[in-house]
Amino acid sequence: MYHYGTLIKKSMLIISSREFRQNQKEYFEKVDKGEHIIVQRGKNKAYALTPISADDMYFNSEMVKKIKQSILEVQQGEVQTISTPDEISDLLGL
């Protein structure tokens, strides 16, 4: 089997974006089996392939509830305008 890239660890492979495009199915299957795949795009950009499950924070019911509550608060005018880093620190009690 042809492998293009650099094997960093037993479970991590860095490949080029071209290699990923040409063999997407192969790399998705590797990720499904627990292997870490990093897709290098140009000299300074890289992306990790990660499977998404029902328990991921951005897609679970708890996060959806939080988003809906936040939208409701904005609609009701319950917002605080922050324009400086100091105001963020004050708000967080830092």
| End-to-end C-alpha gap | 54 Å
Class of the largest domain, according to the CATH hierarchy? Alpha Beta
CATH superfamily of the largest domain: YefM-like domain
Principal-axis shape = elongated
The total strand number stands at: 4
Helical amount: 40-55%
Radius of gyration: 21 Å
Q: What CATH architecture label of the largest domain applies?
A: 3-Layer(aba) Sandwich
Mean pLDDT: 84
Query: In sequence order, what are the helices and strands, one letter per element?
Result: EEHHEEHH
Query: Treating each run of at least 4 consecutive H or I residues as one helix, how many helices?
Result: 4
The stretches of 5 or more residues where confidence is low (pLDDT under 50) are none
Number of domains as seen in the coordinates:
2
CATH topology of the largest domain: YefM-like fold
**Structure classification:** alpha+beta
- Outline the biggest β-sheet: 4 strands, mixed
Write out the strand line-up for the largest beta sheet, numbering strands in chain order.
1-2-3-4
β-strand percent reads: 15-25%
